[in-house]
Amino acid sequence: MKFELMELPYEISELSPSLSQETMQYHHWKHLATYIDNLNKLIINTEFENLSLEEIIKKSLNWPIFNNSAQIWNHNFYFEALTSNWINPDWKILYLINEIWWDLEIFKMEFNKMALSNFWSGWTWLVKDESGLLEIINTSNAWTPISENKKTPLLTCDVWEHAYYIDYRNRRAEYLENFWKIIDWKKIEERNY
């Protein structure tokens, strides 16, 4: 299976000012495209050649293959949940959020705090555990919650510097504040079921 660059559900200029067109060009067309090119080369004539990204992530013990496949999956998951048409979250996802954090604003503060504490390059996730409760977790580098089949990812924020450095330099906190202005809550709700 040859992997291809995902088509974004929005124009790259539409996420501005939260994410500039330049950031989106580098992040999507260069960083993500490089992971795809690398993976396509790495899996030629291997047992992974005809597998889905999820299958490769779960089966690969080869770090270059795992890292590239997981980064593709993580980036696709991230980009799919962004929108220029922000709306409030539906009551179903709010109910789950309020069950743990009491309030959407408190949840955002806790998510941002976790993302700021992610010392390495990596990802901050909202996941649902096996009992149906929500949790905020960090993963380093390319690691992803789907590798272990124990948590269902609902939302992720890319906290690798390439995700925000053009627009925010070292101001990760400002990037995180603006991240909430472009979340597609409908997509998060779809992932919850």
TrEMBL record:
<feature type="domain" description="Manganese/iron superoxide dismutase N-terminal">
    <location>
        <begin position="2"/>
        <end position="82"/>
    </location>
</feature>
<dbReference type="InterPro" id="IPR019832">
    <property type="entry name" value="Mn/Fe_SOD_C"/>
</dbReference>
<dbReference type="InterPro" id="IPR036324">
    <property type="entry name" value="Mn/Fe_SOD_N_sf"/>
</dbReference>
<dbReference type="Pfam" id="PF02777">
    <property type="entry name" value="Sod_Fe_C"/>
</dbReference>
<keyword id="KW-0560">Oxidoreductase</keyword>
<dbReference type="GO" id="GO:0004784">
    <property type="term" value="F:superoxide dismutase activity"/>
</dbReference>
<feature type="binding site">
    <location>
        <position position="162"/>
    </location>
    <ligand>
        <name>Mn(2+)</name>
    </ligand>
</feature>
<feature type="binding site">
    <location>
        <position position="27"/>
    </location>
    <ligand>
        <name>Mn(2+)</name>
    </ligand>
</feature>
<dbReference type="InterPro" id="IPR019833">
    <property type="entry name" value="Mn/Fe_SOD_BS"/>
</dbReference>
<comment type="function">
    <text>Destroys radicals which are normally produced within the cells and which are toxic to biological systems.</text>
</comment>
<dbReference type="GO" id="GO:0046872">
    <property type="term" value="F:metal ion binding"/>
</dbReference>
<dbReference type="InterPro" id="IPR019831">
    <property type="entry name" value="Mn/Fe_SOD_N"/>
</dbReference>
<feature type="binding site">
    <location>
        <position position="158"/>
    </location>
    <ligand>
        <name>Mn(2+)</name>
    </ligand>
</feature>
<feature type="domain" description="Manganese/iron superoxide dismutase C-terminal">
    <location>
        <begin position="93"/>
        <end position="191"/>
    </location>
</feature>
<dbReference type="InterPro" id="IPR001189">
    <property type="entry name" value="Mn/Fe_SOD"/>
</dbReference>
<dbReference type="Pfam" id="PF00081">
    <property type="entry name" value="Sod_Fe_N"/>
</dbReference>
<protein>
    <recommendedName>
        <fullName>Superoxide dismutase</fullName>
        <ecNumber>1.15.1.1</ecNumber>
    </recommendedName>
</protein>
<feature type="binding site">
    <location>
        <position position="75"/>
    </location>
    <ligand>
        <name>Mn(2+)</name>
    </ligand>
</feature>
<keyword id="KW-0479">Metal-binding</keyword>
<dbReference type="InterPro" id="IPR036314">
    <property type="entry name" value="SOD_C_sf"/>
</dbReference>
<comment type="similarity">
    <text>Belongs to the iron/manganese superoxide dismutase family.</text>
</comment>
